[in-house]
Specification:
This protein has 570 residues and is an alpha/beta fold. It is built from 20 helices and 19 strands. The chain has helices spanning 14-24, 28-36, 42-49, 65-77, 90-104, 126-134, 150-158, 197-211, 217-220, 223-233, 239-254, 258-266, 275-292, 296-303, 307-340, 363-374, 400-405, 427-444, 467-474, 533-537; strands spanning 5-8, 81-86, 110-113, 137-143, 162-166, 179-181, 351-354, 378-384, 387-393, 413-416, 420-425, 453-456, 458-459, 488-495, 501-503, 507-514, 517-526, 542-553, 556-568. A five-stranded parallel β-sheet has the order 3-2-4-5-6, with helices on both faces.
């Protein structure tokens, strides 16, 4: 395991912290966390802790929104056939489920389509357009994809099919000849640019309500699906996304859709749901359908109105998830074996690994695991038809999208974000692409980007961890990109004698105490820290960086430290 660098964030302005303490009357540590996030006044803290739907932007600010709503109104009035189309990942399937369920209430001549990951690939496919033509579809609403589908939209136009494209990926120089909703497109005045694909779809629902005097609750009842898309797609959990996510989490806890409720039951989640549950339990199950089966199963689950059907499909999806776990474990093992046997790889700044037999559906997960192991910009590919296709993941601070874009002329397709992307390349260009990718990474990446770093918010001794402190800390939820869960540091810690044990294969469970304050003890879990067992078991002191969480076991809830890393005390 790579040694991690601990980086303590700069201390916020003392005057600001003191002012917040005085105005809010809360723990200094909480005020420090607020100030670090730029929440340096009572009003800013209030809006952060108590976001309201009034902080959600007017959907009509989005470029082309008027035109999009009018086109849908015309389609409904003319009884045209409408197809809701979306990507096969969580963002895409939740978006399709949301938009399809909403418009189904106003128009019966509507259906949905999710492309096959293996036969059609990412984005708008020519096969889907042919399907639409065969079924007399006149309007397609594409979600979480389409911003680069220039030729596909031209082809659809030739067949008499119109497109409304709701996407959040970076546009190219040319925009498809349809009605495009994307806050990142040029001259779009919409003030928040980081919506998920489902987020753009949700703005369309809001606009439709607004323009047709429909109660906005009709759109808001799908906020649980939107929260799942935000958490799973890892868009920044700031500003409007934070507000939408928070209200979506509330709905997940109070009144989830029937399909989501079935997922929660299947996953045996009976505690208060947060974004961690979205990332580790809900999202993977929805994703699994598209990874090892067909993502239309996920949409079926998320749109059903029958509890019996939801139970049946959620069990199928859960079985898909078990298969997915086995596949990604085996593929990761094979990929690491290839890389470890390649001496030349050890000195590279990037990782590109491929195998013709790997399952396309798990490449993104495997790419994440390989990136975590070597901590380099990473691409994992497999053979799909006559081409190689795969996923890319970056390290903090390095824009992998730009690195891939620099070789765009030898790629068939590519797209994505700063830290995650996808691409397709012909076999004859694979070697050249691999070499060019390594060259551009080597030339542009900083050495500091190649060291895994844990950013620590504040130093927090164990004796300051009280119930009131944790309750306030909980109000920073939902956590995610841009609003990360606070990480704390504590030095000169010991394991309470007789409490250290190994759980699972390589995790440590113990009670910890500070040497200078042994009466204060707190349970701790340290995932993947087996290498520290001998050192800790001898009674040595160590420093930890950690987060705080509730551990639920057999109905009992206990506050525990989730230890992110361990270092020997100096």
């Amino acid at each position: 395991m790579l040694k991690k660098k601990w980086l303590l964030k700069p201390e916020p302005n003392n005057q600001t912290v003191s002012q917040l303490e005085q105005e809010l009357g809360i723990h200094k540590g909480i005020c420090q966390l607020l100030a670090q996030r730029g929440l340096d006044s009572f009003d800013k803290a209030k809006h952060f802790f108590r976001p309201t739907k009034h902080q959600i932007h007017n959907p009509m600010l989005m470029k082309n929104m008027d035109e999009a709503v009018q086109r849908i109104k015309n389609a409904i009035k003319g009884n045209e056939k409408i197809l809701i189309y979306g990507d096969y990942d969580v963002d895409g399937t939740t978006a399709v489920a949301m938009v399809y369920s909403f418009f189904k209430e106003y128009h019966q001549n509507i259906s949905y389509y999710i492309p096959d990951r293996h036969n059609e690939g990412y984005g708008i496919s020519f096969k889907s357009i042919d399907y639409a033509k065969e079924n007399n579809i006149q309007l397609i609403i594409a979600l979480d994809c389409g911003i680069k589908a220039i030729n596909e939209v031209i082809y659809a136009k030739s067949k008499g099919i119109d497109y409304i494209i709701c996407d959040h990926h970076l546009p190219g120089e040319t925009i498809p000849n349809g009605i495009v909703l994307n806050p990142k497109q040029k001259e779009c005045p919409y003030p928040f640019k980081e919506l998920s694909g489902a987020g753009v779809g949700f703005k369309l629902l809001q606009a439709f309500c607004k323009q047709n005097n429909i109660n906005t609750q009709k759109a808001n009842k799908h906020l649980d699906l939107l929260a799942i898309s935000i958490g799973a797609d890892m868009v920044p959990l700031i500003e409007e996304n934070r507000v939408l996510a928070q209200h979506g989490i509330e709905k997940l806890n109070k009144e989830p859709t029937i399909g989501v409720k079935a997922i929660l039951n299947n996953a045996k989640i009976n505690h208060s749901i947060n974004m961690r549950d979205v990332g580790f339990a809900i999202g993977p199950r929805i994703n699994a359908a598209g990874r090892v089966s067909h993502a239309s199963k996920a949409v079926e689950l998320l749109t059903t109105t029958s509890e019996e059907s939801a139970k049946k499909v959620s069990e199928e999806v859960s079985l898909n998830n078990i298969d997915r776990r086995l596949l990604d474990k085996q593929t990761t093992k094979e990929a690491l074996s290839i890389l470890l046997s390649d001496n030349s790889h050890q000195n590279k700044k990037s990782t590109v690994v491929y195998n013709e037999t790997w399952h396309k559906g798990v490449l993104g997960i495997v790419c994440n695991r390989i990136q975590e192991y070597y901590y380099r910009p990473t691409i994992v590919l497999t053979k799909s038809g006559e081409e190689y296709t795969g996923s890319a993941r970056s390290v903090k601070g390095f824009n992998i999208y730009n690195a891939i874009h620099s070789s765009s002329e030898i790629l068939e397709t590519f797209g994505g974000h700063k830290y995650a992307a996808g691409l397709t390349v012909k076999p004859q260009n694979l070697k050249e692409f691999t070499n060019r990718f390594e060259q551009i990474v080597e030339k542009t990446i900083l050495e500091e980007h190649l060291i895994p770093t844990i950013e620590i918010d504040i130093v927090l001794p164990l004796n300051e961890i009280k119930k009131g402190f944790f309750n306030l800390l909980n109000q920073f939820e939902p956590f995610g990109v841009g609003n990360e869960q606070p990480i704390f540091k504590c030095i000169y810690v010991q394991a309470v004698k007789g409490t250290l044990r190994v759980v699972g294969n390589d995790h440590l469970k113990m009670e910890i105490m500070e040497i200078n304050n042994p009466k204060v003890r707190i349970p701790a879990i340290a995932f993947n820290q087996i290498q520290n067992f001998d050192y800790i078991s001898k009674g040595n002191s160590f420093d930890i960086c950690y987060s705080l969480e509730i551990n639920e076991w057999k109905g009992n809830q206990t506050l525990q430290a989730n230890v992110k890393d361990i270092q020997k005390s100096k």
